[in-house]
Amino acid sequence: MLLLLVLVFFGVFVVAALLLTATKTSASQQTEQTLTVLQAALATSKMSRADQAVDIRKEELLSAVPWLNRWLLKLELAPRLRILLYQADLKWTAGSLLLMSAVCFVIPSYLIYLRTGALIFAFLIGLLLGAAPIVFVLYKRAQRFDKFEAALPDTLDLMVSALRAGHSFVSAMDLAANEAADPIGKEFRICFDEQNYGLELKTAMNNLSVRVPLQDLKIVITAILIQKESGGNLAEVFDKAAYVIRERFRLKRQVRVHTAQGRLTGWILSFLPVVLGIGLYLINPESMSLLWTRAIGIKLLYLSGAMTIVGALIIRKIVNMDV
C-alpha cells in the first residue's frame, strides 16, 4: 500500500513538472515571437537604438574650447555675458569675448612695458584696451535697443488696429511678429512661440522684458498683464502707450540735440591728450620719452590720466539726462 502511494505521488509530481516545463517553454517561445515581431515592426537594431538615443536637453555652448566651456558654465558671469551678446545680436560666445579681451589686454601691456619699463602704466593701458571688445558689445546693444524703441510705437499701432478689427491679443502679437522689422519682429516672434508652446503669457512677457530691458517695453508689458487680470480695453491702452512713447522719444532726441556740444567737448577733451602725446612722440621721441624714463614723468602720466578720466566722467554726468 505504501509503495502504491509513493508511485502515485511520484507520477503526479512528474506530470506536474512536465506541464510546468511545457507551459514555460511555450510562454518563452511566445515572448520571443512577440519581441521579434516588435523589433521587425519598429526596426530597432542595436545601431538604430543608438541613433534614437537623442539628448533633447538644451546644450549651452559658451566657448568652442572644451575646458573653457566647462569653466564658464560654473561661473555666474557667463549667463550675463551670453544675455549681453544676445542683446547686441552678435554671434560670439562668452568664451570668445573673454579671449578677445584677454588678448587686447596682454599684448599691448607687454609691448608698452618692454618700451617704457613702467609696469603700472602698461597695466592701465592694457586695461583700457582690454575693455574695447566689451565696449563694442555695449555699443551694438545700445544701437539695437534704439532701433527697438523707435519701432515700438508703430508696432503698437499695428496691434491696436488688429485688436479693433476683432483679433485676440495673441493673434495681434503674431501679426506684429510677422509684419514688424527686426529687432522688434524677432523678439515678438520668440514671445509668441513661447506662449504658443505652453508657457504662460506672464512668463513669456517676463522673458521678453529680460531680453529687452527697456522702460517703454516694461510699461507695455505691465499694461498687458494688468488687463489680463482685471480686464479692460487693451486697444485703448496700447494707443495711449504708443502716444506716450512717441512723446518720450521725441523729448529724448531733443535733449540729445541740446547736449550734443557738451558730449562732443567731452570726447575731444578725453582723447586729445592721448592723440597729442602720440603725435609729439612721432615728431620728437627723445623729448616725449622723458615722461616714462624719469620718476617725475611717470608721476605726471598717472596724474594726467586720472584727471582726464575724472573730467570725462563729470562731463558724462552733466550731459546724460534721464527722460
Task: Report what the structure shows.
With 323 residues, the chain is an all-alpha fold. It has three domains: 66-130; 141-245; 260-319. 83% of the residues lie in helices and 0% in strands. It has 16 helices and no strands. Helix 5 packs antiparallel against helix 6 (119-130). It starts with a helix and ends with a helix.
Domain unit count: 3
Question: Radius of gyration, rounded?
Answer: 35 Å
The portion of residues forming beta strands comes to under 5%
Counted beta strands: 0
Query: What structural class do helix, strand and pairing data support?
Result: mainly alpha
Task: Name some characteristics of this structure.
mainly alpha; 323 residues; 16 helices; disordered N terminus
SSE order and pairing:
Elements: H1 2-42, H2 46-52, H3 66-74, H4 77-87, H5 94-116, H6 119-130, H7 132-164, H8 169-179, H9 184-196, H10 201-211, H11 215-230, H12 234-258, H13 260-283, H14 285-288, H15 290-293, H16 295-319
Helix pairs in contact: 5-6, 7-8, 7-12, 8-9, 9-10, 10-11, 11-12, 13-16
What can be said about this structure in brief?
The chain has helices spanning 2-42, 46-52, 66-74, 77-87, 94-116, 119-130, 132-164, 169-179, 184-196, 201-211, 215-230, 234-258, 260-283, 285-288, 290-293, 295-319. It has 323 residues and is mainly α.
